[in-house]
Amino acid sequence: MPRLTTALTELLGIEHPILLAPMAKISGGRLAAAVSEAGGLGLLGGGYAEADWIDPAFRDAGNGRIGIGFITWALDARPDSLTRALAHRPAAVMLSFGDPAPYAPAIKQAGATLICQVQRLDEAQRAVALGADVIVAQGQDAGGHGRLGRGTLAFVRAAAEALPVPVVAAGGIGDGRGLAAALMLGAAGVLMGTRFYAAEEAIAPAPVKQALVEGRGDDTVFGGVFDRLRGPAWPAPFAGRSLANALTERWGGREQELVGDLLEAERAAYRAADQAGDMGRKVVWAGEVVDMIERSDPAATIVRRTVAEAVEALSGAARFLTA
């Protein structure tokens, strides 16, 4: 199989410049290990830093060389979770949505690669100053949590030009053409979430994966209604991109009206619907790249196909040249 050698593959010692997004409680041990075994780097979805999730997730990965990611502001309340994760000697730790300063020294001292996900160039520059080895430049196209502002293409280009460390593109990337485009913009690799959410090994029920297969980028919306109903509340300016449903149609842009008895009633209804698998109310995080998901494949198939498509796209770029 052809290989794409970049600063990211050399730094992490991986075959392919593809990282699994550490989606909270979706990127479990099986999925992370499968991505790593296929030549990328799988990152466990440590999410809200719930300590009792960490050890079983690493066990599920077996002997796979993987990393882990945390929501940084959640780690502030549970810093011991980082200590627990580092005891497993992860290849990398990714921090997102908060200040990495309190945790960077311990991560570096443990010998793990420090990956910081950011949405602004000034955040990227500060993360590098704190010791980040890799910057994930996340555009507003991304599924799950992020923030409005920079689109992926322009942001990745600006970050790659300005930073002395490998930049990884995130948001709107789910196939080889996206990987090829990111490399052409100066990125050293990509981080993919939505595409792997539909992978066979992802921790998600079949109706959710089917919703991703059937979903379209035009069906995604950005907002905070699900965070308000299911908790925990996210700090501004962060919210999430998901597939639209009855809840987003009713409360999108009106989340602040959910207070008091009305909030409690909607919360109870959401929890009941979530347990029942009611896809009319259940959250399905998804980025604009959801158009490209045609079926639920094994993670290894996704990795290999992405690389093969990228090689083909890069090789075929010469057809645009004229003498």
TrEMBL record:
Superkingdom per UniProt: Bacteria
Spans through the membrane: none
UniProt keyword Oxidoreductase present: yes
GO molecular function: nitronate monooxygenase activity
Protein name: Nitronate monooxygenase
Pfam families documented for this protein: NMO
InterPro entries per UniProt: Aldolase_TIM, NMO
Database matches in PANTHER family: 2-NITROPROPANE DIOXYGENASE, 2-NITROPROPANE DIOXYGENASE FAMILY, PUTATIVE (AFU_ORTHOLOGUE AFUA_2G09850)-RELATED
Keyword Flavoprotein part of the UniProt annotation: yes
Listed CDD domains: NPD_like
Assigned keywords, A-Z: Flavoprotein, FMN, Monooxygenase, Oxidoreductase
